[in-house]
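Progress against Task 2.4 (sequence-to-structure conversion) is shown through the following example record, which the project officer requested during the mid-term review.
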Amino acid sequence: MTLLVAASLFFTTPAPLDMPRAEAYLVTKKGGFRQLEDRYDTLDLWTSRTVAGRWIDDDFRVFVLSRLDMLPPALSDASSTRVDYETQLVAADRRNPDHLAAMVNCLSPVDPAAEPVRPRQMPRGLKDVRFWQGTNTAAIVCTFLPEASPAWYMATWELSEADDFGEMSELFTREFLDKKAWLEAFRGEDKAKDAKAARKQRNTPGERELLRRDVRHGVAAYPTWHVTDSEEFTIVDALPSRGFVEALTNDLPVMRRRYAEVMPSPLNGSNTLCVARIYANREEYLEAAGEGMEWSAAFWNPRRRELVAYLPEDGSEKLLETIRHEAFHQYLSYACSMISASPWLNEGYAQYFERGPDGPDFVDSSDLVQFAESIPAILAMDYNEFYSGTDLERRTKYRLALTIAYFLEKGAPEVRFQPFKDVKRDYIKALLETKDMLAATNAAFKNRDTLELFIREWTKFWKQR
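Structure tokens generated for the chain above:
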């Protein structure tokens, strides 16, 4: 038991934090173009930068390390762009007890004591140590000040129900504080902060670079995690081989350009950075995804602005298809200012792009035309309706959504006078104006006659396949 617990103090199972929560705003820039502006929960921004690492062991003990160098944001500053947040930062004074208490209150997993307790004997190399958990035995909450350090550090250790608090406290002091185990965890973070300070002297980063920096900070303490940057993407992964990520960084820019060609948006996306997080296995992925995601292989989280996936047992080719699917959801979210697009469009085109930029070579058309009468219902569905029903019913809905996307790309351009050439353009324009997916579908298909013609031409196309 003791060896297992001690191992967890050496950070063997990384559990990266979620990205900060964001809300989208449409702003008009000089020249008249509209641009998506992300404004983030400022407490999330502070936490994501203050916490250096989080680890979870097999008994669900959670260990968190933080550097307390900046004060939490004022409650009045509920949301902010990253650039504006930079101007709000206030350095914490390590000599001010109110500053320390404010930071502990934000990070402690239990209610902190009003008066912290110091150990009877100060560990070597530390100027001060304070324990904040009071009489609570569910967690150890410790702040410590290394000699000659300009900032406090903080460690919290949420324990399991079977743990003896006294034994765990002794273990924490002996294996973590006395042996300075925290030094290794902050080694990568120190390098990142030194690089950040050097960059700050040269220029002021924009939104994209600040996001890229924060993504990098989020895994800096984990030796098994890697960061790969491209112009429009940052990928963080815990994969054992670099080959897949190299292929992905070549594939994603090609796919994103293709998404934009097929589904153009009036919004300027030059400030966006797409983030992908790839876990090494399904267990760690599900731990991050949370309850209700057991059915999934990947997902796009618009609230957190990240695409999350894992390496499946059937290999990297399947993972690449899955990421292409989710990356289209990611692109469409930005293209539509984070307003939910209809599932027929969103899921249909996500499937369309799974096999590559030109869509699938083959779509099974057997017995397809019997579902022609279902097309109006599919077009009118919201996500609750689209995802409901039996597995067979859901598969049928996905299949019909794919055939609508495939027809719009492969069949509709051949219809006389091209009556459907503006369907996608009109849909996105109406969605941005109305923020209503059904209203956007109605605007895209204009009237009943257009919809009936669409169904006839869709049916004719699939009869000929």
